[in-house]
Amino acid sequence: MKKNKIIIANMKMNGSLSSNEIYLTKIKNNFNNFKNLDIGLCLPYPYLFQAKKFLINTKIRWGSQNVAKFENGPYTGEISAAMLKEFDSKYVIVGHSERSTAYCESDENIADKFEKVKKYKMTPVLCVGETLIEREAGIMERVIASQLDVIVKIYGAGIFENSIVAYEPIWAIGSDMAATPDQANKMCNYIKDFICKEHSCDFKNFNIIYGGSVNPKNAVQLFASESLNGVLIGRSSINFDEFSHICSAAENS
Q1: CA–CA separation, 101 vs 4, rounded Å?
Q2: What values do phi and psi take at 87, rounded to 5?
Q3: In terms of CB atoms within 10 Å, which of 157, 160, 178, 227 comes out highest?
Q4: Which residues of 101-123 are buried (b: 16+ CB within 10 A; e: fewer)?
Q5: Cβ neighbours of residue 47 under 8 Å, at least 6 residues apart?
Q6: 3-state helix, strand, coil in the chain (%, to 5)
């Protein structure tokens, strides 16, 4: 049975109550009847209530761009998985390089966040990827393996059931230099083999998507790859026309 394509929108630090109302209304009116897509909008924390208000009775889901590794406590400015769940969040982006670089997140911290998302029955979107220097040195597979292996060693490979891994090369983010379909295909196959074959796990619901300068032009080629289950979209997710073109390409792929 053919899987639905997954479209995760990372809207980053963008939006307002007024602009979100227009955007969410367009999303609901244009994409709710798509049959071959699973769409998730990852918004800034303050707008989760608004996403729920507009999308509650649709096929479109929502979520956040980060989560705390703690359950609760004296952690000023942090948001727990339990809090996200109260807004009926489904998706939670974990380990995005913009956060791990700016806030010095370790692989162990990211693993703990991943586990908290799973504990509250949400779907983590785990970002993994290499720098341009690492790719040019030919060690991209080793880098990805080390990022995944931390989670496997702490929580076991089975935790990847009902999860999403986003291969998002750091050199491609915001650079207009997306990975080629062949590069994305090879790395996504490597991730699948590393988690599923190397650890003898037969998952019913495990998906691998690509992120990094996804746009309407390269999306068509990316969707043609059998190894990709979808895409993680950054800048193009806040441009409704571009986002619409990408969703239409996925629906018809």
Answers
A1: 32
A2: -100, 15
A3: 160
A4: eeeebebebbbbbbbbbbebebb
A5: 15, 17, 20
A6: 45, 15, 35
Distance of CA 110 to the CA centre of its chain: 14
- Written as one string, the DSSP assignment of 192-228 is HIIIIITTT---SSEEEEEESS--HHHHHHHHT-TT-
Query: Catalytic amino acids?
Result: 96, 168
Q: Measuring CA to CA, which residue among 69, 8, 3, 60 is closest to residue 36?
A: 3
Strand, helix or coil for residue 113: helix
Rounded distance between C-alpha atoms, residue 210 and residue 220, angstroms: 13
Longest dimension (CA), the chain: 49
Residue 33: CB partners within 8 Å, gap ≥ 6? none
Contact, 88 vs 58, CB < 8 A? no
**Full pLDDT tens readout for the chain, 253 residues:** 678 999 999 999 999 999 999 999 999 999 999 999 999 999 999 999 999 999 999 999 999 999 999 999 999 999 999 999 999 999 999 999 998 887 889 999 999 999 999 999 999 999 999 999 999 999 999 999 999 999 999 999 999 999 999 999 999 998 878 899 999 999 999 999 999 887 777 888 999 999 999 999 999 999 988 889 999 999 999 999 999 999 999 999 8
Written as one letter, the residue type at 154 is I
The pTM of the full predicted model, rounded to 2 decimals, is 0.96
Extract the tokens encoding 116: 């908290």
